[in-house]
Design brief:
alpha+beta; elongated; seven-stranded mixed beta sheet; single chain
Length: 279
């Protein structure tokens, strides 16, 4: 990893300082061969579960809540067209809190007021690709010194740069990087035109990676994550999962903790413990 200060009107080339080397003492874990592979493998091993993709669940208040008081407290869920998705013993919502508020609005969820307490910020992501390794900017080439996988940026609207093709089991991947903008900047510009955002991020990326026209990326894409990061307050205890035992509904997700990967595990563990306790 490196600390990187992009080139600007004062300095002609980026300023780089080695931050730390990844090792087994403080290991980093990456899903292979894709970032989604680990989650999909877990899902495939769920014996009694069916996953529905590209399905938007309708707010839980869209039907008469008295129907949810039927046998065994089962809740019937619907999609946005009104089609039934089935009856369920427990409903666990792990969507970001902005979407959870809408799903639970006027549903009678016992902890509704607490959902809005954590503040979440957006993140714009810029993806850049090159047709071959010969066209990579010098900073990303195999001869780059120091050789790095992740850059933390200073004095920039960008936050981090990840070198994707150097991740494990990516040998067949064309050279590419993923760049995250700062959360505070992303939130300030969350409703801006996407093409304008892409242009601004591309200028910042060029300053950071210091390419010329010959080594410019051939593939450029930009994505907005509306709810990406939880603002962490070290003085306050994490929210934790929210439970409505009467309906058998749980609101969970990393944003109920510190918003990091560790929180995913912690909130999942709390969720499982809460269901087992209620049995």
């Amino acid at each position: 990893m490196i600390d990187l200060t992009p080139a600007n009107h004062d300095i002609q080339s980026p300023d780089i300082h080695i931050k730390e080397q990844w090792n087994t003492t403080q290991a980093r874990y990456i899903s292979t061969p894709k970032m989604t592979s680990w989650g999909r493998t877990l899902a495939d091993e769920l014996q009694y579960s069916t996953i529905k993709f590209k399905t938007r669940v309708a707010p839980l208040a869209q039907y008469d809540n008295s129907l949810a008081e039927k046998v065994d407290k089962k809740t019937e869920l619907f999609d946005e067209t009104g089609a039934s998705l089935g009856h369920f013993d427990w409903v666990i919502c792990t969507a970001p809190n902005g979407q959870t508020i809408e799903l639970m609005a006027e549903s009678g969820f016992a902890e509704q007021a607490k959902i809005s307490k954590p503040k979440m910020l957006a993140c714009y992501t810029l993806m850049l690709g090159w047709d071959n390794f010969d066209t990579l900017p010098k900073m990303l080439s195999a001869q780059a010194a120091p050789r790095w996988d992740v850059a933390y940026l200073n004095d920039s609207i960008l936050d981090r740069i990840f070198v994707d093709h150097q991740k494990p089991a990516r040998d067949d991947l064309l050279p590419s990087v993923t760049i995250h903008a700062r959360n505070d900047w992303s939130e300030q510009h969350v409703d801006d035109d996407m093409e304008t955002i892409k242009a601004q991020l591309l200028i910042a990326a060029k300053q950071a990676l210091n390419w010329n026209d010959e080594h410019a990326p051939s593939q450029i894409d930009c994505h907005r994550w509306r709810y990406a990061a939880t603002v962490s307050d070290s003085d306050k205890e994490a929210l934790g999962i929210l439970i409505d035992e009467s309906h058998q509904w749980i609101v969970s997700g990393d944003w109920c903790g510190q918003g990091n990967i560790e929180s995913c595990y912690q909130m999942a563990q709390q969720t499982v413990e809460a269901i087992n306790k209620a049995k």
